[in-house]
Structures are given as structure tokens and as C-alpha cells.
Backbone:
């Protein structure tokens, strides 16, 4: 039971919840994930985007049901522990930490790719150091900043769509409806594009802050996902129309390259700035979220106890933040953005596989329809995770294995 006086105010309606969802989804992912997805799927990119959206919807719906039952912070780390057992909660938490750490690296590299292509890694490391320092000082992104970032990103994406579709230069990038990447390529691209939908489950965590959450949250999720899918679909069609699948697949800064190919090179700096703003906003939030999950796992003895330290002045988990920042900086200095996206997607898909399995247990023989969505979501997560590039799968399985070994060495906890 929530202690008296500690309840959050229920002030958010459907529109507010949708804005929060859009702020979590429409960000730097679309600037970074289109190129590797196009490389995998070819002209099947739009089909892959639809597949990723369906899996995202299932995951978000399952998370919403679980959040209504377990309003405590921790997400699937809590749901897996309560519904499936201690180990599965731990596996979800471990997958989240490693997957989102890779997401941090991908966002930092996106900043570098758009700000200074010749010094991508150096800019990425500098961004990580700067934002780790910001978080260390206790600074938080307020709601109005999130709204500003969403507005900026939407304006940039809208300009890309208008310029590309209005350029009349679509011959080289003719949209072919055939699945040139094959079924395997489409599934791999869907797994990579899943990265661009990351954050949608933020809506499911608003249970204590929305009016009539049983009605508001289920309405907000499909609305936010639908708007995001429409925006991403429009951007994908526009960029494909001028670059074509091959050109998009080989681009390092695809949206900037698209406006340049459309004959409006003066817009490229604006697109680069918009991508940098989106990536910096995402990176700030990601470092914050990963460090807090690491803190929670350290308190449960799943990570070193030293990470539980809270700074006496700034009241932040400073050791966890420094550990996360250092790890992300090393990744940003050594990996490429496509590898980071692939590994991130693998970890997050495993995380949501546990969420769907947990939601499945909420059903019963008399509520078979309630199990359709988590069953589809679980199957989708598993299929997409193992359809990712082979290197991403191998590294992902290896890192999960390290987590399992660490759990076994620490010792299986007694039942709660």
C-alpha cells in the first residue's frame, strides 16, 4: 500500500498521456535506425516498420496491464519477479541495463554522425561525458523541455517529408513494393526498427498520474503508437523516394543525405541540428533511467553494493551514474552505431519477452482472449531478437550468459 501523503496527483488526461508517449518514441531513433533497416530489408522497409509497430503495440499493452497490477517502479524487473520468479525478474533487469546501455552508445554516436561526421566517436564520447556530468549534478529534464524537443523533432521530420516528396527527384529512388530483402531481411529490419519505437511503455508507467487509468492508458497507447507509425512511415516513404533502398542503406546521416539529394542542401544543417537535439535529449533520459535501474538491482544484490551510494549533496546515485557513463563512453569510442542498435534491440526485445510472459500469467482458461496479445508479443520478441544480425545475436546471448553466470555465482535467493 502506498504510504499516506506519498500518492502522485492524478492530473493527466488522454491527450497528456499521448504527448508523453510521443516524447518517449519520436526521437533520435528515426534518424539512426532507418539506414541499417533499409540495408537489411531493401524495399521491404515499410513492411518491416509495420511489423515492428505490431510487436511494440503488444509489448506496450502487456506492460500496461502489468503496471495496473504492480504500480511500483522497476517495470518488468518487478513484473517478472512477481509473476514468474526471482530469476526472470533479474534477467529482465539485466537485459534492460545492457540493452539500454547500448542504446546510450547509439544515441551518442548519432550525435557524432550528424554533428561532425569526421569525428563521430570523439563527439560521442564528449556528449556522454557532458550529460553524465549534468545528471550527476541532479539536473532533470522537465516536462516542458520534453515538449520542446518533440516539437523541434516533428518540425524537422515534417520538413524532410515535404522537401523529399516535393522535389520531383524520385526516379533514382523508385518505391518498389517487392520484398527485395526477403522475409529474413524484413524480420531483421523490423528488429532494428524496434529500436526507434523504444520508450512507448513509458505510458504504462503513468498509472498513478492519470485520471481514470483503466480507461486512459489503454486509449493513449494505440493513439501514441498510431501517430508515431504514421510519422515514421511518412519519413521512410519520403527518404526512400530520393535515396532508394540502396542509397538509404549506405547512408551515415540518412535524413541529411536525403534533403541534400532532394536539391535543398541548405536544409541539411537544420536536419543535423534537429537530429543532435533529439539524440541529446534521448541520451540524457537514457543515462538517467539506466543508472536508476542499476541502483535498484544493486539494492537487491544483483549488482555490486557500491552502486547503491547516493550523493549526500545532490541526492543522486552518483556511483551508478559514473559507472554507466564510463561504460557508455567506452562503447561510444569503440563500436559503430549499427552494431549498437542491433545489440540494444536484442537486449530490449528479451526484456519485453519477459514482460509478455508475465502478462500471459494474468489470464486464465476463462479469459483466453486476454492471452492473445501477450502470446503474439512474446512470439514477436523472440522471432525479431533472433532475426537480428548474427553478430548482435551472438554478443547478446554472450552478455546474457554472463548475467546468468553472475546470478548463479551470487547464489539463488530464498523464496520471498
Residues:
Amino acid at each position: 500500500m502506498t504510504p499516506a501523503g506519498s500518492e502522485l496527483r492524478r492530473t493527466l488526461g488522454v491527450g497528456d498521456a499521448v504527448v508523453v508517449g510521443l516524447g518517449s518514441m519520436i526521437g533520435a531513433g528515426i534518424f539512426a535506425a532507418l539506414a541499417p533497416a533499409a540495408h537489411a530489408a531493401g524495399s521491404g522497409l515499410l513492411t518491416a516498420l509495420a511489423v515492428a509497430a505490431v510487436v511494440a503495440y503488444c509489448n506496450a499493452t502487456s506492460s500496461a496491464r502489468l503496471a495496473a497490477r504492480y504500480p511500483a517502479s522497476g517495470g518488468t524487473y518487478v513484473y517478472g519477479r512477481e509473476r514468474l520468479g526471482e530469476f526472470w525478474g533479474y534477467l529482465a533487469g539485466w537485459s534492460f541495463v545492457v540493452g539500454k546501455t547500448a542504446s546510450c552508445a547509439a544515441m551518442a554516436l548519432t550525435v557524432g554522425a550528424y554533428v561532425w561526421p569526421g569525428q563521430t566517436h570523439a563527439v560521442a564520447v564528449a556528449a556522454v561525458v557532458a550529460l553524465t556530468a549534468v545528471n550527476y549534478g541532479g539536473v532533470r529534464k522537465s516536462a516542458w523541455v520534453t515538449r520542446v524537443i518533440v516539437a523541434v523533432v516533428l518540425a524537422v521530420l515534417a520538413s524532410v517529408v515535404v522537401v523529399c516528396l516535393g522535389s520531383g527527384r524520385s526516379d533514382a529512388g523508385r518505391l518498389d513494393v517487392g520484398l527485395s530483402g526477403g522475409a529474413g531481411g524484413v524480420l531483421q529490419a523490423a528488429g532494428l526498427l524496434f529500436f526507434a519505437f523504444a520508450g512507448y511503455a513509458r505510458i504504462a508507467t503513468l498509472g498513478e498520474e492519470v485520471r481514470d487509468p483503466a480507461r486512459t492508458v489503454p486509449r493513449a497507447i494505440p493513439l501514441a503508437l498510431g501517430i508515431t507509425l504514421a510519422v515514421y512511415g511518412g519519413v521512410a516513404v519520403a527518404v526512400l523516394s530520393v535515396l532508394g533502398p540502396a542509397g538509404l542503406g549506405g547512408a551515415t546521416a540518412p535524413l541529411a543525405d536525403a534533403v541534400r539529394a532532394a536539391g535543398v542542401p541548405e536544409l541539411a544543417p537544420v536536419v543535423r541540428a534537429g537530429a543532435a537535439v533529439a539524440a541529446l535529449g534521448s541520451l540524457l533520459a537514457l543515462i538517467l533511467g539506466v543508472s536508476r535501474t542499476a541502483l535498484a538491482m544493486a539494492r537487491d544484490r544483483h549488482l555490486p553494493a557500491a552502486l547503491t551510494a547516493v550523493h549526500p549533496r545532490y541526492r543522486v546515485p552518483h556511483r551508478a551514474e559514473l559507472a554507466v557513463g564510463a561504460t557508455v563512453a567506452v562503447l561510444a569510442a569503440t563500436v559503430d552505431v549499427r552494431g549498437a542498435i542491433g545489440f540494444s534491440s536484442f537486449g530490449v526485445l528479451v526484456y519485453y519477452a519477459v514482460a509478455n510472459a508475465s502478462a500471459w500469467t494474468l489470464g486464465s482458461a476463462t479469459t483466453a482472449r486476454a492471452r492473445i496479445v501477450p502470446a503474439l508479443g512474446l512470439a514477436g520478441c523472440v522471432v525479431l531478437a533472433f532475426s537480428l544480425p548474427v553478430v548482435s545475436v551472438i554478443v547478446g546471448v554472450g552478455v546474457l550468459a554472463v548475467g546468468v553466470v553472475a546470478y548463479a555465482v551470487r547464489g539463488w535467493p530464498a523464496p520471498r
Notes: The chain is about 70% helix and 0% strand. The two ends are 18 Å apart (CA to CA). The first helix runs from residue 14 to 25. The mean pLDDT is 84.
